[in-house]
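Before surveying the methods themselves, let us examine one representative protein, pairing a chain with its fold in token form.
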Amino acid sequence: MFGIADYGAFVVAIVIFLAIPGPGNLALITSTGKGGIRGGLAATMGVIAGDQVLMWLAVAGVAALLAATPAAFSMVQWVGAAYLAWLGWKMLTAKPGDAPVLNIRPRQYFQQAATITLLNPKAIVFYMAFFPLFVDPARHQGLVTFGAMALTIAALTFLYGLVVVLLTHHLAERLRANPRITRTLEKLAGVFLIGFGVKLALSK
């Protein structure tokens, strides 16, 4: 289909990739908790935008460059790790009444999620190594094939993000009645972000 080897397996692989716990999922959940459905959907669009940039960079050959230059990929790892750890520290040390670390305006939620996605080595590795496995060399149709893959990834990411946002919003409405639980969950999210940062920094 459109030069994609085993389209069904490609779809399943994307869904599994989306469901793996990571900074992107945490960004969706935190953005929804702070900004409601609008904030969560803005973050979802940010994740989609980040994914599309990484995918088309891979198509353009940047992935091959990173693979051939370990120092460049290592730098991306460290920048991404430092950014996640910084966000986590800000959330962990925030006091009641402080401005939220993940800002309230949807545009800022979009930028935050897009940045997290772009600096996430897990996503970069996916497009460098896993994504090319689904390109059928015999039936490859150039931009048609890559365009079909890009649209599939965007559609699945939006649907997945919508489900996460709606579920999170439903739970958040119940949690807002208890500020102590909300603060505890925010601290926990900060710990997870720092943990993701450390994990990404140590992954080689």
In short: The first helix runs from residue 7 to 19. The mean pLDDT is 76.
